Amino acid sequence: MEKLVLSGHGVRLEPLEKRHAHDLSGLVDAGMWHGMTVPLPDTADAMVAHLERLAAGGAVAFAVVDATAGTVAGVTAFYDVAHDVRRVEIGHTFYGRRWWGTHVNPAAKLLLLSQAFDVWGMERVALRADVRNTRSLAAIRRLGAQPEGVLRSHRVAFDGTRSDTAYFSILRSEWPAARAGLTARLAELDAPTAPTVPVRYVPQGEAAAR
């Protein structure tokens, strides 16, 4: 089976594997993990367990690599992929604090959204966040995603507390404007340019050898 690799604008999204766990565990802390539904994966073993949960849930998950430094910056994923009705969600995203406010998140989202709309032909891409996670909510809004409402008492954190989930989406008709907005943001952030957003597939063996 082949795995998806996406690259452009200074980031590379490569298949998320256990070998990434050590680097990723050093990026998380209790403050940034507040409201998450799974325990803080701040050790290599805990991060491996987190990555295994993503895989078991059917997520198409990626390690986000800062291509300039060659350093793992975080994680993002497609999930609830439904090709038959042309919809997908993007989430399970986190980045180390040093990459907050940089080109990394808009570049990663541009790659994912381009894959969803331009390659897979999706009609709808959804995103969601805990209503307490104001940083994530602001990031989703900056993508051009439209608010759809709040699901009350929708999430259960690993400490047993319940909270609401805010839902957003981008439809195919809204994608050109969202793409233009992301491209403009990347230009403002002086992100490395690319003539296109490359999409390629590599065998598992090649990805593992990176």
UniProtKB/TrEMBL annotation:
One of its GO terms (molecular function) is acyltransferase activity, transferring groups other than amino-acyl groups. Residues 12-146 form the N-acetyltransferase domain. Coiled coil: none annotated. Keywords: Transferase. It comes from the Bacteria. SUPFAM superfamilies: Acyl-CoA N-acyltransferases (Nat). Signal peptide: none annotated. This is RimJ/RimL family protein N-acetyltransferase.
